[in-house]
Specification:
- The protein is α/β, with parallel strands linked by helices and 397 residues long.
- It folds into two domains: 3-46 and 291-396, Aspartate Aminotransferase, domain 1; 49-289, 3-Layer(aba) Sandwich (Aspartate Aminotransferase, domain 2).
- 39% of the residues lie in helices and 14% in strands.
- Strands 2-8-7-6-5-3-4 form a seven-stranded mixed β-sheet, sandwiched between helices. The protein has a three-stranded antiparallel β-sheet with strand order 9-14-13.
- Strand 10 and strand 11 form a beta hairpin.
- The protein starts with 7 loop residues before the first helix and ends with a helix.
- 47% of the residues are buried.
């Protein structure tokens, strides 16, 4: 069928580069090629047993009816306690909306907050779906480029320069996907000082990697000054609790925004999976110390991967303080021909690694940074060592 029968909306929508690379890697694996995938942002740990047990109990307790659109009340109460315990944020259940993954939470926000022509500031690199969600909502993404020299973090001066009379929102993540960078309390406070001069601007703070944090502590921008009044804090259980397939995300927001997101969700998906919601109560009420073993494993892998990358000529990397990604600058190789493949940009570099090293990564172009690629270290140390060996051999032989 011709694409001219489809809507302009879908024809103008970009395919998720992370999912596209994962699909290409699966295709090569099906041909019998030994592909090491470092492309998907998914923990290689299993969901903790106490969460599984909560789900099994919910099945036996017959949680099989439609749940409330915005989530079970006791789950929303548990999320409020989590926000107070971990983030020093005081929300009421009416300010919480539970959705089918944090991605739906973000889509809801875009749909209820953005009008055609509204500008949304995106410190780049940013998560791949931010810009597409903003565009689907009629908004204009305003990318603010950062580099490895500033640890991929936006400065207050850059924020001020990006603001116009059309600026409606700013979206960012900390810890950041793809760079692993973490904004400190001092850095966020400096950004807030700029935002205080522009009270019309709302902030989306994506904190899905909150607990996978190797810095001193996590800081929520909503906890600074009066920012809770115009911040939508997005979180979920996918990354920290290895629950990617359970599809539960949530927001804490001013009540009028939460009500609008509930209204939107009521016409799209209604309430999130009932059993997964019951399991999420167990996750968010658990002491975060239950995650220590997993977080320490990720820290060890980060140190391993950064060390191996630093041993490859021409690659530059920061020291990511959170999440489970590294985002090396590969621009040294642009303009070179390696193993018969001309490398003009990060897309070509990722293709080179897939074709010749049989390692799947994701181009930085997808994240708003054309000089870098993203590698996920959410896999075993043995596979990481082999992947980095293949990459080094491909680039140096």
């Amino acid at each position: 069928m011709s694409t001219n029968l489809l809507s302009d909306r879908i024809n103008s929508l970009s395919t998720s580069q992370t999912l596209a690379m994962a699909a290409k890697a699966r295709e090569l694996k099906a041909q019998g090629i030994d592909i090491i995938s470092l492309s998907l942002g998914e923990p290689d740990f299993n969901t903790p047993e106490f969460i599984k047990e909560a789900a099994i109990a919910a099945i036996h307790d017959n949680y099989s009816k439609y749940p409330p659109v915005d989530g079970y009340v006791d789950l929303k109460e548990a999320i409020c306690l989590k926000f107070k315990r971990d983030n020093k944020l005081v929300y009421t259940p009416s300010q919480i909306v539970v959705s089918t993954g944090a991605k739906q939470s973000l889509y809801n926000i875009g749909q209820v907050m953005i009008n055609p022509g509204d500008e949304v500031i995106l410190p780049a690199p940013f998560w791949v779906s931010y810009s597409e969600i903003i565009k689907m909502s009629g908004g204009i993404p305003v990318e603010v480029p950062t580099s490895i020299d500033t640890d991929f973090k936006m400065t207050p001066q850059q924020l001020q320069a990006a603001i116009t009379d059309k600026t409606k929102m700013m979206w960012f993540s900390s810890p950041c996907n793809p760079s692993g960078s973490v904004y400190s309390e001092a850095e966020l406070t400096a950004l807030v000082a700029v935002l205080e001069q522009h009270p019309q601007i709302f902030v989306v703070a994506d904190e899905i990697y909150e607990h996978i944090n190797f810095s001193d502590k996590h800081c929520s921008i909503a906890a600074i000054g009066n920012m809770i009044e115009r911040t939508i804090t997005v979180n979920g259980v996918a990354k920290a609790f290895a629950m990617t397939g359970w599809r539960i995300g949530y927001i804490g927001a001013p009540e009028f925004i939460a009500k609008a997101c509930t209204k939107m969700q009521g016409q799209v998906t209604s309430g999130a999976n009932s059993i997964a919601q019951r399991a999420t109560i167990a996750a968010v009420t658990a002491d975060p110390s239950v995650l220590n073993e997993m977080v320490q494993a990720f820290r060890g892998r980060r140190d391993l991967v950064v060390g191996l990358l630093q041993d490859i000529p021409g690659l530059k990397t920061n020291i990511p303080e959170g999440a489970f990604y590294v985002f090396p600058d590969v621009s040294h190789y642009f303009g070179k021909t390696i193993q018969g493949i001309e490398v003009k940009n990060a897309d070509d570099f990722s293709f080179l690694l897939l074709e010749k090293a049989h390692v799947a990564t994701v181009t930085g172009e997808a994240f708003g940074n054309p000089n870098c690629i993203r590698l996920s270290y959410a896999t075993s140390e043995d596979l990481l060592k082999e992947a980095l060996k293949r990459i080094k051999d491909t680039l140096t032989n």
